[in-house]
């Protein structure tokens, strides 16, 4: 059950499609998994903030592992999994399951494939630029944990994504293969 060449070359696209599918579960259920877990407790705001702090820590660990791996041109599958679990905490139950299961399957298939030779430079500057969206989402989560206001997080997440696209235009237009993504 190895990843195909397409899966290996278009890792970012497949990741984004999985995230999009998970986010679209909001159309069915607008309540995130954390709120479902804490709303019946005696101190829901305390538990909500605590669980979102844990999610922020998972996102931070995942982002740091991905950045470090990218700076040394190594696969960063464990970092991607930590990041996915943290990000999935913002989604409804179905979205959480879809994102974590989808990313787990995608990453498992990639680990079974022999890696292509790296085609990107191995520098910290490049690594941080490539992981702009993850670092932006990490900062968005910090703001969200402090305020617990969805609108602030929504705006910051969209800004992070747009900044990531600006700094990392799609590789298809430049004609080189994207690896280790």
Round the mean pLDDT to the nearest integer and report it: 89
Which stretches are low in confidence, meaning pLDDT under 50 for 5 or more residues running? 173-181
Structural class, please?
Answer: mainly alpha
Total helices: the number is: 9
Share of helical residues: 55-70%
Shape: globular
Number of strands: 0
Can you put this structure into words, describing what you see?
This protein is 69% helix and 0% strand. α8 (132-147) packs antiparallel against α9. With 181 residues, the protein is mainly alpha-helical. It has helices spanning 5-9, 11-23, 33-38, 44-71, 77-88, 93-112, 124-130, 132-147, 150-167. The model is unreliable at 173-181 (pLDDT under 50). The longest helix has 28 residues, at 44-71. The protein has a domain at 5-120. The chain has nine helices and no strands.
What would the keywords be for this entry?
single chain, 181 residues, mainly alpha, 9 helices
Summarize the SSE layout with pairings.
Layout: H1 5-9, H2 11-23, H3 33-38, H4 44-71, H5 77-88, H6 93-112, H7 124-130, H8 132-147, H9 150-167
Helix pairs in contact: 2-6, 4-5, 4-7, 4-8, 5-6, 8-9
